[in-house]
# Entry
Amino acid sequence: MALANNETAPLFASGASSTLRLIAYLAIAIVLMVADHRNEYLYRIRLALNEAIEPTYRIAAWPSQIARQVSLAITDRQQLTERNTQLSEQLLLAQARLNRLGVLRDENQRLQELLDVQRGLGLGVQLAKIIDVDIDPSRHRIIVDAGSRQSVEIGEAVLDAHGVMGQIVEVLPNISTVLLITDPAHALPVTIERTGMRVIAHGSVALDRLELPNVPISADIRVGDKLITSGLGGHFPAGFPVGEIRSISNDASGMFAAADARPSAALDRSGEVLILHQLPDPIGPPAPARPDGPPAEMSR
Amino acid sequence: MNRARANFWLFWGSVVLCFILQLMPLPQVFLPLKPYWLALVLAYWVLEMPDRVGLGLAFILGLCGDVIAPDLLGENAMRLCILCFILLRFRARLRFFPMWQQALAILALLLNDRIVVLMVRACAGEPPPPAAFWLEPITGALAWPWVFLLLDDLRARVRTTES
# Structure
């Protein structure tokens, strides 16, 4: 017995004390996690350590930046020419559409003045670059290079050229974190453009999928329907494209239908995003897409 | 004296490199395959220098990891502490395992780590992760021999240049 004790002594001498220490550390970790979960302490610590965190992100983004530069440098001429023609075609189209929209905007303004509507469409928009770092594959978050010094605030909507990407959830002085609309923790009030039906688009575990649970079975919803933001909840202005219905099925209980949508924003590609500064009075239902009912006074 | 300093630099260099590797972007397909670098490198140092690298250091490195990748404060710290504790317990045996057995042990450790993550996230009220969540320990175990050999080689070089 004594011999056995001697033999195991060097292996397990620190056993009891280190178990105690482990328990102590685990207890501290659990207390920290609970405190952080309740009170967002992590955010304050990150704010304090910003000077250390930000350079780390920039350094971690170097490899992908270098890769992009290299791929740009070795793209051949033909590809570039193709891309150029493609882009100029797109520009032409966009220009034409803009001209048409300009006329519509003027008309809209006149009508709004007639109706004495306060709400303007002047959107404060800011361009930001995505810093290409991966925080955690199971959480759909990105980091952009604009922060509180660029007057970004928590809750502001983030868009790209094709639609809504997400919203700002954390702001450090020069960078901020965006929660994408496909994050499992994110829910976005949307309307179906064709019918005006309001639904909520939840994130999922996949980066190219939005879930619309609890749609009434009798609802008029089809594959290919476009989803736009409804403006309810006040975080996102109304009328921005969110996605397109990809499939509709019954949910597990059979009481509701559940739809799948594909986000229209290019969430998995990096580049530049637009941060939308909050509107003065963003709360309220959206204007109907095509007001072809009776005038407002009559319907009241 | 000088050698200790070189070792010090090697240690902190590897840790900083880990943080950067952890943040480094990868194509979408490979994201779930990214090994938990911090755990691998910490495992190496625990096996080789247990007198310097203990639970306290694991805890602090974990906290750094939490702050850099905004997880729940304490999540990484808890994971690394558990990992470090198990490694310290079985260090004497693990050290003399052949490489493939060591890799298997690391696989088991990382699987355990995933279970800890799952528990923490379930308590925080997050939805269950996708199936690809379980791929990470496998790549971690596959990466282990390379991490081990690389760090061992670097350390041997430091030793020979000094003496």
Notes: Residues 2-51+90-162 of chain B form one domain. The CA atoms of residues 69 and 79 of chain B lie 14 Å apart.
